[in-house]
Amino acid sequence: MVTNTSQISSVMSTYSRFPVALVKGKGSYVWDDQGNQFLDFTSGIATCNLGHVPNVVKEKLEEQLQNIWHCSNLYHIPNQEKLAALLTANSCGDQVFFCNSGAEANEAAIKLARRYTSKVKGEGSYEVITFKQSFHGRTLATLSATGQEKIQQGFAPLVPGFSYLPFNDFDALNELAIRKPAAVLLELVQGEGGVIPADPDWVSKMAQICQENDILLMVDEVQTGIGRTGTLFAYEHYGIEPDVISVAKGLGSGFPIGAIIAKEKAAKGFDPGSHGSTFGGNPLASAAGVATISHIVESNLLSHVKEITEYLDLQLQELKEKFPLIKEVRGKGLLKGLVVEGDAPEIVKKAIGNKLLILTAGPNVLRILPPLTATKEEINEFKEKLEKTFQSK
Ligand SMILES: *Cc1c(COP(=O)(O)O)cnc(C)c1O
């Protein structure tokens, strides 16, 4: 196995990887091929929200493995129906389209917005407004929707029809009312862009403008969804009802699946044949989704998330007081950003030496994503390991 960056790997070099090969995970911990144990406060980037290899999902997947893995969307898929019913019962949406990833979910949202407006308002009304520092994915349309030049570098010509307005900026809302685009697409907490929560007043004013002008309000909850911020979806904190919600990361607890959940009005944009996916919501992926969502809902996991978030907030405040290199603690629920003075990637590297996995969100933000199942003891361990990391600077 190639874990040394100086060796040539047969895998294309699209990631700068840490020299660690993970071979096992359980709960908040992972192990490498040398037997080292790490506390994983990345959750596979907000994906393993129930911790690694959660029994509730594992059992359902094992059961499904005995029956059928894949058919195609030419036939009814009972697990997919179940998962759609769970998602709509627990959100403001009415109908669901399934795909395999976050980028594909946003791709579906963008296509739905275009189809919907071309039906309702006619050709020529296709613009989707997104925001600076946003991240919506790596396909051509979603990187075009992304408000970061570094993601778009070298991929010109971009897909037309996107404009980026400044995030949390009230003047941008005037612009929105003037331009009357087909849709807005936004993250309620910008994840990759630096863990920046949207201002509630700004969001509610935006929702009002969207409603008055028949602009679809689409929220990218690929990172914030599935309990990450303390509610099943982050939009619940904002008192809004989006027309489209995109989800992926946490939906299958690590099994690849994505979806958009749309209100009936927007969902009518698609007809049979207008969009599709071979794997989207297949029996195995949907089984993972059903097990994940029903566990979160039935076990009242979100009240644990609230409790553990309060505890984590206290510990992060203590760290901030102790270490002046922490400039700000921000985020929502278990999606936390520590703005640091200095090189965040360097700190992440050092943390690995202390058997702690964390992430960055840009050059000067540490991103902390514990599993929703994390305990106070694990948060204490996280704090000790991060202190040790800061002290070794
Ligand atoms: C990760 C992410 C995506 C892309 O998801 P993929 O599954 O990697 O395609 C899109 N939007 C947001 C907010 C994300 O965090």
UniProtKB/TrEMBL annotation:
<keyword id="KW-0028">Amino-acid biosynthesis</keyword>
<protein>
    <recommendedName>
        <fullName>Acetylornithine aminotransferase</fullName>
        <ecNumber>2.6.1.11</ecNumber>
    </recommendedName>
</protein>
<feature type="modified residue" description="N6-(pyridoxal phosphate)lysine">
    <location>
        <position position="249"/>
    </location>
</feature>
<keyword id="KW-0663">Pyridoxal phosphate</keyword>
<dbReference type="Pfam" id="PF00202">
    <property type="entry name" value="Aminotran_3"/>
</dbReference>
<dbReference type="InterPro" id="IPR015421">
    <property type="entry name" value="PyrdxlP-dep_Trfase_major"/>
</dbReference>
<dbReference type="InterPro" id="IPR004636">
    <property type="entry name" value="AcOrn/SuccOrn_fam"/>
</dbReference>
<feature type="binding site">
    <location>
        <begin position="102"/>
        <end position="103"/>
    </location>
    <ligand>
        <name>pyridoxal 5'-phosphate</name>
    </ligand>
</feature>
<dbReference type="GO" id="GO:0005737">
    <property type="term" value="C:cytoplasm"/>
</dbReference>
<dbReference type="GO" id="GO:0042802">
    <property type="term" value="F:identical protein binding"/>
</dbReference>
<feature type="binding site">
    <location>
        <begin position="220"/>
        <end position="223"/>
    </location>
    <ligand>
        <name>pyridoxal 5'-phosphate</name>
    </ligand>
</feature>
<feature type="binding site">
    <location>
        <position position="135"/>
    </location>
    <ligand>
        <name>pyridoxal 5'-phosphate</name>
    </ligand>
</feature>
<keyword id="KW-0963">Cytoplasm</keyword>
<dbReference type="InterPro" id="IPR050103">
    <property type="entry name" value="Class-III_PLP-dep_AT"/>
</dbReference>
<dbReference type="GO" id="GO:0030170">
    <property type="term" value="F:pyridoxal phosphate binding"/>
</dbReference>
<feature type="binding site">
    <location>
        <position position="277"/>
    </location>
    <ligand>
        <name>N(2)-acetyl-L-ornithine</name>
    </ligand>
</feature>
<comment type="subunit">
    <text>Homodimer.</text>
</comment>
<dbReference type="GO" id="GO:0006526">
    <property type="term" value="P:L-arginine biosynthetic process"/>
</dbReference>
<dbReference type="InterPro" id="IPR015422">
    <property type="entry name" value="PyrdxlP-dep_Trfase_small"/>
</dbReference>
<dbReference type="InterPro" id="IPR005814">
    <property type="entry name" value="Aminotrans_3"/>
</dbReference>
<dbReference type="InterPro" id="IPR049704">
    <property type="entry name" value="Aminotrans_3_PPA_site"/>
</dbReference>
<comment type="pathway">
    <text>Amino-acid biosynthesis; L-arginine biosynthesis; N(2)-acetyl-L-ornithine from L-glutamate: step 4/4.</text>
</comment>
<keyword id="KW-0055">Arginine biosynthesis</keyword>
<feature type="binding site">
    <location>
        <position position="278"/>
    </location>
    <ligand>
        <name>pyridoxal 5'-phosphate</name>
    </ligand>
</feature>
<dbReference type="GO" id="GO:0003992">
    <property type="term" value="F:N2-acetyl-L-ornithine:2-oxoglutarate 5-aminotransferase activity"/>
</dbReference>
<keyword id="KW-0808">Transferase</keyword>
<keyword id="KW-0032">Aminotransferase</keyword>
<dbReference type="InterPro" id="IPR015424">
    <property type="entry name" value="PyrdxlP-dep_Trfase"/>
</dbReference>
<comment type="similarity">
    <text>Belongs to the class-III pyridoxal-phosphate-dependent aminotransferase family. ArgD subfamily.</text>
</comment>
<feature type="binding site">
    <location>
        <position position="138"/>
    </location>
    <ligand>
        <name>N(2)-acetyl-L-ornithine</name>
    </ligand>
</feature>
